[in-house]
Specification:
Radius of gyration of chain A: 18 Å
Strand order of the largest sheet of chain A: 6-7-8-3-9-10
Order of helices and strands of chain A: EEEHEEHEHHHHEHEHEEHH
CATH architecture of the largest domain in chain A: 3-Layer(aba) Sandwich
Distance between the termini of chain B: 44 Å
Shape of chain A: globular
Oligomer: heterodimer
Strand content of chain A: 25-35%
Strand content of chain B: under 5%
Largest sheet of chain B: none
Structural class of chain B: mainly alpha
């Protein structure tokens, strides 16, 4: 993908460290996501990608390091401010994480309950829900339960839910994992379309090389808890480092 | 020796969990009176917990009253004391058997249900999704459920007690020819304030314990389907054990304030 023209950091991680007992998962990880950029973080399973993204939204507490989102440090924010900041971030979970006791409509309505007034949306809930569902091509599924949806449809609904608050940053945790190649391609295309339409910046955690190739402006390889290598897809596939080559050999 | 260690490990594990649960309870009391309030979800939970347990509690209560009366009748007849039946059954059911049996049934149905529901939400990251969307999952899921069990279990106990007495009255009517009016007259004459108040107060604690244990187990569920099963199962085991402990304390305190 083409590089964004503006260099304006919207998300910054400095020297992030996280351990679970003797298992040091993150050992000083750094990252800068610029406005309009699609940044991919790749790494093996268990390399700490998901831990990093959970620290980013405050689902996990880092041992040390700083995380700035839109120039606000999430470590120092109180619960109310953190909840408000979270409305600026969309999060697509690996397993979609749809509320299985609610319909698609109720799933999308859920984030609006508390924050719609604060965000001054002029549209009604129904209009916002319909717009989000149209953007992922699932307006007919509005009254279905998550159990009635296929894996790809669930991922689309989860994406619509992540978009409902019109966030400026979207975090994707393994967006194509568990999907067949065709559905995975559809999801990637949807991610690109959303980025153009909503002018979002995206941080994508994946180990899917195809996904990284198509969507990334820049890739960071997370190995042994640090930024082992960084560059565009083309730069990284030309690398002679054996650990980097191991990722792209197929 | 190793068996002894395992046993002592389990005992200490149980008390560690109870300690952790106490902190969970402290968090509940810290947040329950602080807004924003989730009234809609609270009503939904009250309906789910209360209304959907009525049949089970009713059937169990009816059989309890029926069997209790049938089993006690021959012994009382031996002493020519069958006229004491309504008093004996009502006091036993209202004071002790009704609340404990209903609470145990609710621990099995409601406690395990809450444990499994929250556990599965935890392992499928639904709780994380809630938090990321700016909603406090503790308020939405835990506070509503614990409050709903605390309010609804006492009502279920009252309902269960009434149905048990109805079952007992039916046996007395069929076997001893005692009319329903006479039976319930004797019941109300036998029951005093000292029987009803401690039983009512402890039923709120029973409800609180069932909700607390179910939510705690589900909220701290380990990853995987095995974790969900364990959360559901241990919610019943822990809640049942704690119910007896609470009951013992309640009886002990009632003994000080009321004549038993």
């Amino acid at each position: 993908m083409e590089k964004p023209t503006q260099i304006q950091p919207v998300l910054e991680i400095k020297d992030l460290r996280k351990s679970f007992g003797d298992n040091h998962v993150l050992r000083g990880f750094n990252l800068v996501l610029n406005k309009g950029e699609n940044l991919v973080v790749m790494g093996k399973s268990g390399s700490g990608k998901s831990v990093m993204i959970k620290c980013l939204v405050g689902l996990m507490q880092a041992d040390s390091g700083s995380i700035q989102i839109n120039n606000k440090s999430i470590v120092t924010l109180g619960q109310v401010e953190l909840d408000l900041l979270r409305t600026e971030i969309g999060f697509l979970f690996q397993g979609s994480a749809l509320y299985d006791s609610m319909t698609v409509k109720e799933n999308l309505e859920f984030p609006l309950r508390r924050h719609k007034k604060k965000l001054n949306f002029k549209q009604s809930n129904d209009e916002l829900i319909l717009e989000a569902l149209k953007n992922v091509g699932l307006e007919d599924a509005i009254d279905l339960m998550p159990s009635e949806l296929s894996g790809g449809m669930k991922r689309r609904v989860a994406l619509a839910r992540a978009l409902i608050m019109k966030p400026k940053i979207i975090l994707y945790d393994e967006p194509t994992t568990g999907l067949d190649p065709i559905t995975a391609k559809e999801i990637i295309a949807l991610m690109r379309q959303i980025q153009t339409q909503y002018d979002t910046s995206s941080l994508i955690i994946t180990h899917d090389v195809d996904c990284a190739r198509v969507i990334s402006n820049r890739i960071i390889l997370l190995i042994d808890g640090i930024n082992y290598a960084e560059g565009t897809y083309q730069e990284l596939i030309r690398s002679h480092d054996p650990k980097v080559k191991a990722f792209f050999k197929h | 020796m190793s068996h002894k260690l395992t046993f002592s490990g389990r005992i200490s594990g149980f008390f560690f969990e109870v300690g952790d649960m106490s902190l969970f309870a402290v968090r509940y009391f810290r947040e329950v009176f602080r807004g924003p309030y989730e009234f809609r979800e609270l009503l939904n939970q009250c309906y789910t917990i209360g209304n959907r347990s009525l049949l089970l509690v009713g059937v169990t209560g009816f059989i309890l009253g029926l069997v209790f009366t049938l089993q006690s009748r021959p012994t009382l007849m031996e002493f020519g004391a069958e006229s004491w039946m309504p008093s004996m059954v009502s006091i036993s059911i209202v004071r002790e058997i009704g609340p404990v049996i209903t609470a145990l049934i609710c621990a099995g149905k409601i406690g395990s249900g809450i444990g499994a529901e929250l556990g599965s939400m935890k392992v499928t990251e639904q709780i994380d999704a809630m938090e990321v969307s700016g909603t406090n999952p503790f308020k939405y899921l835990v506070i509503t459920r614990i409050t709903a069990t605390t309010l609804m279990i006492p009502l279920l106990i009252v309902f269960g007690d009434f149905i048990a007495l109805l079952g007992s009255a039916l046996v007395e009517n069929l076997k001893g020819g005692v009319s329903f009016t006479l039976y319930f007259n004797k019941v109300f004459n036998a029951l005093s304030f000292g029987d009803l108040l401690p039983a009512t107060i402890k039923s709120f604690f029973f409800g609180f314990v069932i909700g607390l244990v179910g939510c705690y187990k589900g909220y701290h569920c380990k990853k995987g389907t095995l974790g969900v099963g364990e959360a559901s199962n241990s919610a019943v085991v822990y809640a049942s054990m704690l119910l007896f402990i609470v009951d013992f304390i309640a009886v002990f305190i009632s003994d000080i304030f009321f004549e038993i």
